[in-house]
Design goal:
The structure holds 2 protein chains of 2 kinds.
Chain A lengths: L3 E4 L2 E4 L5 E7 L7 E6 L6 E5 L3 E2 L7 E6 L2 E6 L9 E6 L6 E2 L3 E5 L1
Parallel strand pairs in A: 2-11
Antiparallel strand pairs in A: 1-3, 3-8, 4-5, 4-9, 5-6, 7-8, 9-10, 9-11
Chain B lengths: L2 E5 L2 E3 L5 E8 L8 E6 L5 E7 L6 E3 L7 E6 L4 E6 L8 E8 L7 E4 L3 E5 L2
Classes of the chains: A mainly beta, B mainly beta.
């Protein structure tokens, strides 16, 4: 199975900051990577698919990059609504797997 | 608008069974592959199972293979997860989700989840 590792596990930042979250796959997954945002008590929300494609309705301050085994999610200017937990997910095979999550906290 | 509503969760003893349902609306259910994902309390997301649009292909995580069975009734716009031989580690919120486009794509819509607690 493909293991996904995110870093950092927790990130403290301020409104207006630019932040980057990294996700590494245990083997190449080409560009078959998605990013989700989850707020407490809510279902995850798809932000980005195929490593860099913004899902409809997602603000343009979110961007994704990478291929192979290393990927990043960048938020260009943090807004109050962005403080949440972020998960990467590989879908190179039908046996999906998620990273352990990165909690983005207010500094 | 797309809506997915899970039901059927609750408290069950170890070794017991439970059947979850997911009622879909706001889209043509027969056109979409579907999936179940779970989240243990305070933990991350774990994919559980997926099923193709016509129900002909199904996949499972190793942790549930042989114990859980996914199915769908396209006439009722419903997705199901039959869970047998439940264990304490199956305790989680279970989400149903729609596969975005082709089989194997990520999940673009999720339900609100239903909590399953396995405890004596």
């Amino acid at each position: 199975d493909i293991q996904m590792t995110q870093s950092p596990s927790t990130l403290s930042a301020s409104v207006g900051d630019r932040v980057t979250i990294t996700c590494r796959a245990s083997q190449s997954i080409s560009s078959w990577l998605a990013w989700y945002q989850q707020k407490p008590g809510k279902a995850p929300k798809l932000l980005i698919y195929k490593a860099s494609n913004l899902e409809s309705g997602v603000p343009s301050r979110f961007s994704g990059s990478g291929s192979g085994t290393e990927f990043t999610l960048t938020i260009s200017s943090l807004q109050p609504d962005d403080f949440a937990t972020y998960y990467c997910q590989q879908y190179n095979t039908y046996r999906y797997s998620f990273g352990q999550g990165t909690k983005l906290e207010i500094k | 608008q797309v809506q997915l509503v899970e039901s059927g969760g609750g408290l069950v003893k170890p070794g017991g069974s439970l059947r979850l349902s997911c009622a879909a609306s706001g889209f043509t259910f027969t056109d979409y592959h579907m999936s179940w994902i779970r989240q243990a309390p305070g933990k991350g997301l774990e994919w559980v199972s997926c099923i193709s649009s016509r129900g002909s292909a199904m996949y499972y995580a190793d942790s549930v293979k042989g114990r859980f069975a996914v199915s769908r009734d396209n006439a009722k716009n419903s997705l199901y997860l039959q869970m047998n031989s439940l264990r304490a580690e199956d305790t989680a919120v279970y989400y149903c989700a729609r596969v975005r486009d082709i089989f194997g794509d990520p999940f673009d819509y999720w339900g609100q989840g239903t909590l399953v607690t396995v405890s004596s």
